[in-house]
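Action item from last week, closing it out:
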Amino acid sequence: MQKYISSVFIFIFSIIYSQQYNIQLYNTDNGLPQNSVKDIIKDKYGFIWLTTENGIVRYDGMKFVVYKNLPLNNQRFTFFYGYPKKDSIFTTGDSGKILLINKRSPKVTKTSKRNVDFISRDNVNYFLYSSNYIYTTSPGISLYFPCQEGIYFIRENSVKYINNLSKAEENLNIKAKYKNIARIFVIDKSVFFIDYQSKKIQKIERGKIVSSYNEPLLTDAKSKIYWSRVNNQVFVFNGNSIYRCDYKDNRFKISKLVQLTDNTKNIISVYYDQTYRKLYLGSSTYGLQIISFTDFTSIQRPPSKPESVFYATLPYGNSSVINTYGEVFSRNGFVEDKHFKNTVPFFLAYDQEDNIIARKASDLLLYRKKKAYAKTVSKRNIILVDFFFDAKRYYAFEALEKTDGTIGYSGVLMIYNDLSFKTVKKRFFFNDEPTQFLKFDEDHLLAGTIKGLYKVSLKTNTIIKLNPDTGLSVRNIIQSRDGNFWITTSGKGFYLLKNNRLTKMPYDADNNISSSHTILEDQNGFFWISTNNGLYRVPESQLLRYAQDKKTKVNYYRFSKISGFKTNEFNGGSNVCGNKLGNGEFVFPSLDGLVFFNPTKIKSYYPENIHIERALIDGKEQFFNQVLNVKPESNRIDIFIDTPYYSNPDNLVIETKLSGTTNVKWESIGKDGKFSISNLTYGNHTFIVRILISDQGKYIYKKINIIIPPYFYQTVWFKILIGSVFLLIFYFLARWRISFLKKRNHELEEIISSRTKSLSDTVEKLEITKIKLHKEIEQQKKLIGTITHDITTPVKFIALTAKEALNQNELSGQQSGKILGSIYKSSDQLYNFTITLKEYADIYTHHRSDKTELYSLYKLIEEKRVLFNAIAENHNTVIINNIDKTLLVWISKNILSAIVHNLLDNSVKFTKNGTITIESDKEEDIIILLITDTGIGMDEKKIEYYTKLQDNIENEKLLLQKYGMGLHLVLQLLQMIDGKIAFKKNTLKGTSFKLILTNKKDD
């Protein structure tokens, strides 16, 4: 009787209690190869496997991997059996072939004695009994299933047990099937039979009934029992409700999982994942349903009320909240209604007596607790935005309509003595619309507006702006248990305020944190942050660590509609955006309902492992283990990171790093778990993957090697070969070049030698020229000095003579003749000096620019003979030119012409009634030019003087005034052409001038 009462209590309780859930539906439109899901199982690695009539499917929580090109005649599969914990899961293919799922991959294998899904005994075929709904469409099928000590054989109206050791048989005369469905199921090692006639559950051991249980839900004719031996799970479907059935401590425990709104008659396979709290339902026609259970409860307003948009709420009692309309809600739904009328939804507060302060347009409403919040007291013309009190004062943040003609509000922070809102102790004005304020310490307040955060000093009555950014719109100001202040904003995330300095916290992956409403802190040190797109949880310690070191990472855990909300959009914009209740629950207002939950009971789901064993290389799938070998001609590689994870994919943090690329930093990959590489160069590359596995930021790592062999022309040996060829080519080129350079150097040496010799000759000539020039310069100096000295005397004499003539008043004829004669002689002497000097200068200049040329000596002498012939004839003198007409000379024509001119001039001048003969002789390069006259002849002193002067022309003093300048010029000119002259007085009369000249081309 006690068991019966207990069973009834469990049954009634299970009917009353049901969890909130959401459903995901998968079919051929979004991943499945076929809409009939025959069986469901989870392997030891955490992957969910499905059998369909078009292949085997592996599911990791985000994507389906379909295996339907297996080496079988067809791809139709039914139930699973085997040992998941031992990584041995089997299913049957065509012609008795067995498909083994091992190491996360299916493969066809041979049938073994341990894994037989079909046996024959006594001419009866028995199929393996692993799930009671497998053969529902095939009446009359016989089943068998092995136990630890024997085997059970199930036929339509009987059950036979055969002991493995003794081979003894036990026959149970029971109707084994009901509507073609076997009544027998197994939990752990216990075998149970459903006896619909006695309404009992019979326990069978070794082929005998040993006990019975009264379980109305199991024996109800309307109930369907879904049993899977490989999963060791039993479920009861009754109406639209689904229950889980366990057997422990010799009693059944039946708990209601869910009550569906749709009929469950098409369900043929069931699996419950205890870890992730998900129920998988396989349909015969509609694919796969995944039901997720949650600890979040979303409460909506009653159907008679308008839409369930909530803003400001206050805790009301230990487990409820009240909104601005006076409606009270708990986790279980609507509780009562206080009927607050005409209130705005954005402000609600308690005063020191637990009266509720609300707002009606620009008026303040006070609902008194003593009157059960039924009566109100109104205060006019106060637009209260935020309010709090302490033991000393009442603080109000009020909005004022701007009076400068612009649209909008300014703010004023008022400090009152009491709730009459009449006696003002202090007021602080703000230019912008106020949003929120909070007590910082005994002497300061923090105040937020739509454009900034301010620190208000109650002592000095000053306001300091804390944010440099003029666009910081403050949503909320929160103080955590450790005394830190946190600022949430609209559009710019949230900040830590410390030492009057704001530190911006990082965004989440989708930047939803940018619009944060408020922060509630639980007892484990986690912050719960409501946003416009989801609810986020993060350890405060991570945020504080980030404030110290910006390189550290902050991981936000996101809760969304998948977790049980009606909407992802939570509401802010009110003075209260979240509540902590006395029972430990948190409540957040949203755009569609109030979300209740106990933060300490909300579990974080993280993956336990990652598997990198699949790749798509140029569109072709390839499986590998630790090492991925890729052909060098492959262009694109897609590596799949398989991670069994059945919670919100937003919280799956997978980061990769590939060596050999330009950016060797951790890079997040998409939710599809695919990492793509294009045109990876040859070599051995390391691919590292890490995945977040805890709230504290712990990762697990996985590493594989990607080996891409080089083309033959990229191998080391080929490079060595090419290098050797190039070295040989370089060697021969170098040898050829060296040979060429040697030859070239030899030619250059010869050219240099030749040019060196030429240069030496030139230098030698230049040295000789230098000496000559030096001699010439010295001679010219002497010549100029002598000219200066010699000219001075006649010039002075002319001057004195002229002066004497001027001083004489009258001159006699003799005196005049004498004076004029003196002036004539002196002037004539000066004239001769000048003419000679001019000739010398002309010859010297012409010699510098004269080019050596070959000419006829005869023609030169002939020109001079013709020139002086008229003067000679006047003196009755004959000039005879006996020069060899064939004689050609290289001697400077200008110089030789000047020399001959001077010598002929002297001879003509001093020869009368005589002859002047010019003859030549040649001895190799020596030309002898002899000029002989029959004049008065040169005296011995002159000959001695000129001979001595010729030998020592640099040192001898020139006697131009005494001997004239003509022969001096000749001696200078001869020195210029390396010539000599010999003076000889003839025996009879006259003088001979013998010129010894060198006839060679001047280089």
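Closing note: The two ends are 149 Å apart (CA to CA).
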